[in-house]
Amino acid sequence: MVPPTMTEMWTTMGSTLASFMFIWAIIRQYCPYEVRRYFEKYTNRIMGCFYPYIKISIHEFTGDRLKRSEAYAAVEAYLSVNSSKTAKRLKAEMTRDSNNLVLSMDEYERVTDEFRGAKIWWVSSKVVSPSRPMSYYPEQEKRYYRLTFHKRYREMITEKYLEHVVREGKEIRMRNRQRKLYTNSPGYKWPSFKQTMWSHIVFEHPATFETMALEPEKKQEIIEDLLTFSKSKDFYARIGKAWKRGYLLYGPPGTGKSTMIAAMANLLNYDVYDLELTAVKDNTELRKLLIETTSKSIIVIEDIDCSLDLTGQRKKKAEKSSSDDEIEKEKSDKEISRKEAKEDSNNSSSSKVTLSGLLNFIDGLWSACGGERLIVFTTNYVEKLDPALIRRGRMDKHIELSYCSFKGFKVLAKNYLRVEDHHPMFDTIQRLMEEEDTNITPADVAENLMPKSPSDDAEKCLTSLIQALQETKDEAAKRKAEELKKDGGGGGDDDDDEHELVKGKYC
Ligand SMILES: Nc1ncnc2c1ncn2[C@@H]1O[C@H](COP(=O)(O)OP(=O)(O)OP(=O)(O)O)[C@@H](O)[C@H]1O
Ligand SMILES: [Mg+2]
Predict the structure, then answer these.
(1) Which ligand is in closest contact with the Cα of 254?
(2) Is the pLDDT reported for residue 67 higher than 60?
(3) Per-residue pLDDT tens over the stretch 125-173
(4) What are the pocket residues of ligand 1 if the criterion is a CB atom closer than 6 Å to any ligand atom?
(5) In this structure, is the dihedral angle defined by the CA atoms of residues 16, 19, 25 and 27, taken in order, positive or negative?
(6) What is the pLDDT of residue 496?
(7) Domain-by-domain residue ranges, the chain?
(8) 199: which strand partners?
(9) What local confidence, expressed as pLDDT, does residue 392 receive?
(10) Is the dihedral of CA 14, 17, 23, 29 positive or negative?
(11) Residue 170 is inside which H or E element, if any?
C-alpha cells in the first residue's frame, strides 16, 4: 500500500478536525451538562497528543469546600499586582482582611507573565454547575485561575515559577491584610462558629518608633535588631534555630513598654497576641494557645512578674509593702486587677501554669511551630524574675526603658507641640532633667505637653512641664531628707540606702 502524501494527510486531518468541531458545537448546544463533561474529558486527551502547551488550574475551593484554597488566594494577590498593569478588566473588592480596595483580574480576563525567558498565560475563569432539580441551592460557581505554558518549560514552571508566585502572593497578602490584636482573656470571648482560644479585634495602634521618646542611638539599635530578625529566615534555618526572638522590656510604669510593643508590631507588620497568663488554666492550655498563634506575630506577656512567681505558683495576693513607693503601689494595683479579671471569668478552678510550662512555651519543641515570631515580656521589676526565664537564648534582648531624657523630651516636644528647633525654655528643662533626682516618666512629660484647652500654646505646656519637673525635684529632696531622718543620720550606711532608693526608682 502506498503511504499518503503530505497534502493528503493534511486534508484528512483538516476534515477530521472540522467534523470534530462540528460535533463539539452540537454537543455544547444541545447536550446535558454531564454528557458535555464526559465528552470534554476525552477530547482533552486527544488534543493533548498534538497540543504542545501545558495547563495548570488553581481552584478557589478544594475538597472540603469550606475553606478557600490558600494557593488560589496567593495567585489572586500575585496577579492583582502583576496583572494590574496589563489587564484591561479588573475588579475592585474590599476583602475581609484588608483595609483598602484590592484589585484583581476580572472573570475571563487574560494576562501574560514572563519568568526567566518563559511566557506564561494566565486566565481567570469559572465553571458553573447547574442547580439540581428540586434543590434549594442556587447554581454553584467554581472559580479558578489557569496558567498555560509551553511544555519545554515544564520543570522550571512547576518547580520554580509556581513557588515564586505563591511566595510573592503571600507577601502581598501579608502587606495588605488588616492586622489583628488577639487576646485569650475570658472577658472578651464571644460565641463563634469555630471555637478558637483567641478572640481578636483589628489592631490599629498608631505608635511608631518615630513617635517614641527614646535615645536616638538606642532606638536605631532596636529597629536594626528587629529588621535583621525579620529578614533572617535562611540564617535561622542554617544554624538550626527556630525563627523566633525574645525581648524583655523592663522599667518603671509609664516609660513606654506597651507603646514599644505597638511600635514593633507596626514596624514589622505583625499581629499581636496579648497573652493573659492568669486566664490560662494549665500548661496544656498554654500549649494549645501557642499552637493557635500564626506566623509574623508578637506574643506578649505583660507584667510577667505579676503573673507567675519563681516557684511557678500563682501569687496569692499583692502584699502591701511601703505605701510611699508608688511603683510598688502600681504593681499591686495590677496584680489585684488581674486577680479580679480572673474571678470575673467564672472559672473556679485555679490556674496551674508553672514556670517550666512557661519555659517550654518559650523554647520547647512546640515553640518552633509557625515561625517568625517575637515573644515579649514586660515587667517593672526585672530583678524579681527567675534568671532561667530571662536568660539569653530565651529573652535574647533586654531593653531597659527608663525615665525621660532631654533627647526623649525633644521627640515629645516635636510630636506634641511641633517645636523642632531650640526653644528658649528648653535650657531650663534640660537643666532640670539632667539633675539626679528629677525623674519624670515619658508618660508624665507627655501629659504635661498635652494642650488642655484650644488656647494652650507651646509656652503654656512647657511652663506646665517645668513646674512638674520642679515638683518632682522637691518631692525627691523631701523623701531623701525623711529617709535620712529615719536612719538617724547614720553615717556609713547612707550611701547604700541611697543606692537602694535610687535602684527602686529605676534611675
Ligand atoms: N517612650 C515613650 N515615648 C512616647 N510616649 C510614651 C513613652 N512612654 C510612655 N509614653 C506615653 O505614656 C503612655 C503610657 O505608656 P505605656 O503604657 O507604654 O507605659 P508602660 O511602660 O507600658 O507602663 P506600665 O508599666 O504601667 O505598663 C502612652 O500612652 C504614651 O502616650
Ligand atoms: Mg504597659
Answers:
(1) 1
(2) yes
(3) 888 766 666 555 556 678 899 999 999 999 999 999 999 999 999 888 8
(4) 212-214, 253-259, 380, 442-443, 446
(5) negative
(6) 41
(7) 26-131+138-176, 180-400, 412-504
(8) 183
(9) 83
(10) negative
(11) helix 162-176
188 C-alpha to center of ligand 1: Å? Answer: 23
Average pLDDT over residues 210-228: 95
> What integer pLDDT is reported at residue 440 of this predicted model?
93
Q: Whose CA is nearest to atom 26 of ligand 1?
A: 253
As a whole number of angstroms, the distance between CA 297 and CA 314 comes to 27
The yes-or-no verdict on residue 329 having pLDDT over 60 is no
| CB-based contacts of 89, cutoff 8 Å, min separation 6 | 105, 106, 109
Dist. CA 383–CA 402, nearest whole Å: 15
Q: Which atom of ligand 1 is nearest to the CA of 443?
A: 12
Lateral strand order in the sheet of 140-150:
53-59, 140-150, 118-129, 110-115
Are 213 and 256 in contact by the 8 Å Cβ rule? The answer is yes
Domain 180-400 belongs to what topology? Rossmann fold (3.40.50)
Using DSSP's 3-state secondary structure scheme, residue 63 falls into coil
Q: Over the chain, what is the mean pLDDT? A: 80
Distance between Cα 222 and ligand 1 center (Å): 17
Which ligand has the shortest distance to the CA of 260? 1
- Please tell me the residue having the least CA distance from ligand 1 atom 5: 212
Reduced to 3 DSSP states, what percent helix, strand and coil does the chain have, rounded to the nearest 5? Answer: 50, 15, 35
ipTM value of the model? Answer: 0.98
Q: Give pLDDT tens digits for 19-59.
A: 777 777 777 677 777 777 777 777 777 766 777 889 999 99
In the chain, the amino acid numbered 259 is: T
For the chain, the C-alpha Rg in angstroms (whole number) is 32
The three cell numbers locating residue 289: 494557645
Q: If you take atom 11 of ligand 1, which residue's CA is the nearest one?
A: 443
pTM for this structure?
0.72
For residue 271, the cross-strand partners are: 297
Distance 466 CA to ligand 1 centre (A): 20
